[in-house]
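Amino Acid Chain and Its Fold in Token Form
===========================================
Structure side: the spatial fold of the chain, written down as a series of whole-number tokens.
Position: the record begins directly beneath this header, with no further notes in between.
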Amino acid sequence: MKNNFPIFIVILIFFFAACYSLLSGTYPISTAKLVELLLHPGADNQAGLILWQFRIPRFILGALAGASLALAGYILQTITRNPIADSGLLGVSSGASFGSVFYYFLIGSYLTNIKQIQSLSLILFGLAGALLALLLNFLLSFSFGGISMPRFILNGIALNTGFSALTAYFSLKINSDDYTRINNWLEGSISQGNWPLIRQVAPLVIILIPLLLTFEGQLRLLRYSDLQLKNIGFKMGYWRIFFVLLAAALVCSSVLIAGNVAFVGLLVPHLTAKFFKGHSKLLLVGITINGGSLLVICDTFAKTAFTPNELPLNAMMGLLGIPYILITFIQKNRQK
């Protein structure tokens, strides 16, 4: 029972995040009404329409994007052995955003309701952008002694800026009417979330998360030095490529849902590891659920704090992420 206590708390937090998301908004829905609408999804009234067509899709997409970002952050921190590695800092999110916007540039406009084949093409373009960013970063950071981690972070920041500039350029080239919509999406927003988007992205996330959980043991081994891995005959090159592809696909799915959202992949693995005290077998499950909870809570606050206007999700995450980095930096300095 004692070993299961952390996962129980994590699930409880997710439950409160779900209630907060489904109950909050300009149209008031009481707890009793929420239960009634959930038990009778076909209710033909205004409250039912708001809940099933707007709030539930937004909650599901927030949970999927948060879980994807948190897991991608954990993968990148493990394979780079760098505790502050994050898809936003390493340019992966910007690369995925660039790939997605470049797809819209090729077809000429931003599509809100896209067909299955278009959805697959969009995912492939986003994935190609994320992999391009990672490949460039690895090439620029490589030296005869291996990958230089300080250079890896600095190159990631530079690539992040470069891909953001390219994304802004191509978004301006698409269509002047679509610029505002794309700009809102790139700053982080789930306000356009709907059931068709869930049907497009959810299958990818549902495949990726169990795949990561299945090979969690191989990922943990990558924390050890190259020399130690060679001594035990571990195929580190093969597994690094595998997990890089997995992280890029997770980032790509989150970008398609919520745009370029930073700090989730940095905050959640660190805070969850403290909660689970190291490398519990349930750590990855905890990171998955906590990632979803964090993004759902932040998205709901961003939606309701300044009604009728919404804060960009990225600005909301910055309010949490920047103080966390400063506190971590001060604590590390005190320990020296």
In short: The two ends are 38 Å apart (CA to CA).
